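Recall the central idea of this unit: under ordinary conditions, the amino acid sequence of a chain determines the structure it adopts. In this exercise we apply that idea directly, starting from the sequence alone.
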Amino acid sequence: LLVLAMFVWMCGSLYVQGAWLEGRSTARWLEWLRIAAAFTLATLTFVVWPAHATVALVVASYASLSSVVLALKHLRPATRLTTA
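Accordingly, the structure predicted from this sequence is:
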């Protein structure tokens, strides 16, 4: 079940990355949803399968780093586009 959950989460992550690359307006919302899903998956892994605490810690660390980077990206001022 853990493998299936990770597979679905990874497929969703690829979709979100595609949305970012295409410049879709929903990409930011999808990214926060993906990070929340990672935290949920890490918590469920730790609660349901305590033997896989290392996996839960790795996923939670990845989600934490992703949320910090995304928050910093949105806090910094936008760069001005210039024309040639």
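Residues 53-75 form the longest helix (23 residues).
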